[in-house]
Amino acid sequence: MLNALSNARRHVMPTLLGAAILLGAVNAQASDVSVSNARLSLLPGNTPGAGYFDIENGSESAITLTGADSEAFEAIELHESMEHDGMAHMHGVESVEIGPGETFSFAPRGHHLMFMDRLAPLTEGDEVEVTLDIDGEPLPVTFDVVSPASL
Ligand SMILES: [Cu+2]
């Protein structure tokens, strides 16, 4: 029994190594994607926060942002603001595609991340770790907590 187990392990090891090398290749692609100017606008209380940033796709193929996650919030949604009959509205979007060589700005009155239900108190000057999901690959980004008045 013991022998059978260690034999099985020996077979598993090369497979895991192969997977790690494959993952490495995919990550090289993700490193062509960079995020800057990431800020999270929060009001006091537990109203949703809005996240803004610039994402640059330095790779040679289109990338798709499909979501975001943070341990500091219950959920993060992708939203788009628009004006309709002079009134501001926002609605959820499934994903945002960024073409090769393009920079896309999540900005006030446009696309934003909506941070729902904070799980711990946050104040101006704090930093929040967020993981963006880009084509199934995690991209960690640090957001600075700012006051809405600074935007
Ligand atoms: Cu929103």
Automatic annotation (TrEMBL):
InterPro entries: LpqE-like, Lxx211020-like, PCuAC_sf. Residues 1-30 form the signal peptide. The keyword Disulfide bond does not apply. The keyword 4Fe-4S does not apply. It holds the Pfam family PCuAC. Keywords: Signal. It comes from the Bacteria. SUPFAM superfamilies: DR1885-like metal-binding protein. PANTHER family: BLR7088 PROTEIN, COPPER CHAPERONE PCU(A)C. This is Copper chaperone PCu(A)C. It comes from Vreelandella malpeensis. The lineage of its organism: Bacteria, Pseudomonadati, Pseudomonadota, Gammaproteobacteria, Oceanospirillales.
